[in-house]
């Protein structure tokens, strides 16, 4: 009995020992596997650490480059502001100089007209005017009115040419010889010197009146003086008309610039928002960037307007390098921004979705639905169901073979909204 018990105990211990050995073998195998896995993870960790270090170095380099670019941008901005201030000062100085030139031109025309009157009077009264060049016979007694009118109705934008041609007509090729005057009289252009000459002329005229007058010449003088007065009156009116036309032209030019700037300010202010609404999505919640810039800030309507559009998650590129769909979205953003300035009651779009994928078609459709109202309707021509299925009503065109003509079908979609 005792022997049997001992035998059972020994067998039990042997089985237990074998179980422990098997378990140890399994644990040893697991330890080897875990050790290999741990080595792989350590290698992966080292590689990841190297990549992390390289990325951090790259970030530091980019931060340094960004700081340098920001400093350069600030310097460029300051220089640009200085150039704008200088250009503004130069523009104001130019405007003042042009106004002064216009005033001087008017004075020159008036003095030239007075001098021409003196020439005609000398010819009529046969006064021997000392001349270095020319002859009083070149001074016309008739046709002066047409000449003055023609010179004062030239293009108001060509003031310099008008002044030069007016001098040529009123000089008549004459050059007065002032050598008979005393040197101090030649240099003295004061009002007192002019008054002294007027007194001398008045005395000479009194002496002439005491002489036997030529009545025929006096009658002719009265007639010519009457014509001269009428001509000078018309010339003065022509100068006023010319000045009025020039002022009206400047007013129209100023109004044109104001209206252009008003429209450009509105459109450039809202085009970025419109472009963002057309391009934003889950992947790019902020959308793209779009803006306008003028090539000529002084007279913007004489230069071009540059349109820049950068789709979301893409670097800046010229408009010509955008894809067909990207160009279409940019063009629609510009079109909607222009329309927002002075909106019309309806808007017609003819297959604008031809180059767009379904995602962009859905964005365009959502934008159109958000902008449509009772006072602003969209008429959209499309062959894509993803666009026209979002309309309020459909109009279909088909060919009726029986009558060899086109017919239309209409379907109200609002009845299916629920």
Indicate the topology.
Blueprint: H1 2-124, E1 131-133, H2 144-151, H3 159-171, E2 175-176, H4 183-187, H5 191-210, H6 215-279, E3 289-294, E4 305-310, H7 324-341, E5 346-350, H8 358-371, E6 377-381, H9 385-388, E7 393-400, E8 405-412
Parallel strand pairs: 5-6
Antiparallel strand pairs: 1-2, 3-4, 7-8
Helix pairs in contact: 1-3, 1-6, 2-6, 6-7
Describe the fold and architecture.
The protein contains nine helices and eight strands. With about 425 residues, it is mainly alpha-helical. It has a domain at about 345-355 and about 370-415. The strands form four sheets. It has a two-stranded antiparallel sheet with strand order 1-2. Strands 3-4 form a two-stranded antiparallel ribbon. A two-stranded parallel ribbon has the order 5-6. The longest helix has about 120 residues, at about 1-125.
| Dominant shape | elongated
Helical residue percent? 55-70%
Report the end-to-end length measured between terminal Cα atoms.
92 Å
Mean pLDDT: 81
Number of strands: 8
Q: What's the SSE pattern?
A: HEHHEHHHEEHEHEHEE
Q: Which structural class should the secondary elements be placed in?
A: mainly alpha
- Low-confidence region ranges: 154-169
Radius of gyration: 47 Å
In spatial order, strands of the major sheet run: 1-2
| β-strand amount | 5-15%
Q: Enumerate how many helices there are, as a single number.
A: 9
Could you describe the largest sheet, including whether it forms a barrel? 2 strands, antiparallel
Subcellular location: Chromosome; Nucleus
InterPro entries: P-loop_NTPase, RecF/RecN/SMC_N, Smc1_ABC
Protein name: RecF/RecN/SMC N-terminal domain-containing protein
Pfam family, one: SMC_N
